[in-house]
Amino acid sequence: MVDFRFYVITAENIEKGYSHLDLAQAAIKGGVTLIQFREKNKSTRELLEIGFKLRELTFRAKIPLIVNDRLDIALAIGSEGIHIGQEDMPLTIARKLLGPKKIIGVSARNIQEAIEAERSGADYLGVGPIFETPSKEDAGEPIGCQTLRAIKNKVRIPVVAVGGVNLANLEEIFLAGADGVAVISAITGQADMVKAAKEMREKIDKFLMRKG
Questions:
Q1: Choosing from 55, 70, 107, 109, which is the catalytic residue?
Q2: Which of 5, 55, 70, 136 is catalytic?
Q3: Of 29, 38, 149, 201, which residue is the catalytic one?
Q4: Does the annotation mark 38 as catalytic?
Q5: Which of 165, 118, 125, 127 is nearest to 146 (CA)?
Q6: For every one of its 212 residues, what pLDDT tens digit does the chain have, with 9 covering 90 and above?
Q7: Beta strand 65-68 with 180-183: parallel, antiparallel or unpaired?
Q8: Element containing residue 160 per DSSP (H, E)
Q9: Catalytic: 156?
Q10: Which domains does the chain have, with CATH numbers?
């Protein structure tokens, strides 16, 4: 069973001085339960170099590593799975290439996309953006917690809320039925990334304990 409650998507920022590995290390120290490697602007060789290092890091920490979009990178580094968007490789083809045991997540913005992803064999959904987000320029208009709740009510697979997630709106998201949250800027936007991750994990756990 995969623990989706606290999902961190890696990013790097040369100006601020952090890399994919820096964020992953901080997230692991802070209690992350799942990590996704997402990078759109590097060569395949660079992706492999970073990917192998992330794989070593997550393997030691016993945390699943998901690769965004790039199935070739996922296969090469031996990650636990991939995450694909609506414009990426079709899920059915990805499943044939990856096999039945790998995790495949799919992005969904509405009920139709969510139902189709589940029907095609997705293991979980990344639903959003829930709120406005500075981390993804092409994320589109926020769909809000009402749509999140509607999607959760229509599918049986785990739903991870993404986009604009922070400490202030965590409870609203989980009350809407989310099984977990995925973040970038909620961690990278803070001076102390380890502290930010710990605070988010603590708040998630406290809320889920009360809810459960």
A1: 107
A2: 136
A3: 38
A4: yes
A5: 127
A6: 899 999 999 999 888 889 999 999 999 999 999 999 999 999 999 999 999 999 999 999 999 999 999 999 999 999 999 999 999 999 999 999 999 999 999 999 999 999 999 999 999 999 999 999 765 566 579 999 999 999 999 999 999 999 999 999 999 999 999 999 999 999 999 999 999 999 999 999 999 988 76
A7: unpaired
A8: strand 159-162
A9: no
A10: 6-211 (3.20.20.70)
